Q: What sequence folds into this?
């Protein structure tokens, strides 16, 4: 009993295990921050749109914002496992649980979590907003995207139809997305956009490609046996090359009809 009272008289932050937890929190946070941001971006393709660059930045910011939480929980787990023994038949009284019994720490934790959540929501919305800005612009390409088991089809305003997507560089493209059978998800991997394709429904997403090349289109919603093979390509080309392709493709469709 006496030792209990003595313990509460000494400041909690001067306790050995609290100091150890604090040091470990910093070390684990820094490791998780560095490894987390490196790990994520290492496996991500080089961006082919501003949206993708923003998404990668967002992942890094979120990883750094979350790393102190991982650090604190990890440090507490390590310190508890290393320093707290088995009490046997004499468990410590509730008064010993300085952290659990402190309303101040509880309140602080609610405030910190709320701030972290708000930060994630606001920064996320700011980046999403960048996507939809293109929809409001006049100079846009509109493509109707139709998902089906297990291919994507693209219909252009001039009647051209293809399962290879062509886009001119530096011009916003709007996709009107739907599906003829089950739910799919239209994903241009290197451009950082992904949108559900629902039967009987049209969803929209926009992006401005900023790199010439051939990139991957995938389905990001498990949609049946050959879901993994539901892959098409997008060719990002110059405006002139795009216009020519569109004309040829429409003529080809016309000849076939
Ligand atoms: Cu699919």
A:
């Amino acid at each position: 009993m006496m030792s209990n009272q003595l313990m509460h008289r000494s400041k909690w932050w001067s306790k050995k295990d609290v100091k150890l937890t604090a040091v470990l929190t910093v070390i684990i946070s820094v490791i998780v921050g560095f490894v987390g941001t490196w790990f994520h971006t290492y496996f991500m393709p080089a961006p082919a749109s501003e949206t993708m660059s923003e998404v990668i930045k967002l992942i890094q910011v979120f990883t750094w914002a979350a790393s102190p939480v991982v650090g604190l929980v990890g440090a507490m787990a390590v310190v508890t496992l290393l320093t707290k023994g088995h009490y046997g038949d004499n468990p410590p009284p509730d008064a010993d649980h300085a952290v659990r019994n402190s309303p101040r720490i509880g309140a602080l934790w609610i405030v910190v979590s709320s701030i972290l959540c708000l930060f994630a929501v606001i920064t996320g919305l700011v980046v999403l907003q960048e996507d939809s800005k293109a929809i409001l612009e006049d100079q846009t390409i509109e493509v109707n995207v139709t998902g089906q088991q297990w291919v994507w089809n693209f219909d252009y305003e001039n009647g051209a139809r293809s399962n290879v997507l062509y886009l001119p560089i530096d011009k916003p493209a709007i996709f009107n997305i739907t599906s003829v059978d089950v739910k799919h998800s239209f994903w241009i991997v290197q451009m950082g956009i992904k949108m559900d394709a629902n039967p009987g429904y049209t969803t929209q997403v926009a992006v401005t490609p900023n790199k010439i090349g051939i990139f991957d289109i995938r389905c990001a919603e498990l949609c049946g046996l050959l879901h993994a093979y539901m892959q098409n390509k997008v060719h990002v080309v110059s405006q002139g090359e795009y216009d020519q392709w569109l004309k040829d493709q429409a003529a080809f469709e016309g000849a076939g009809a």
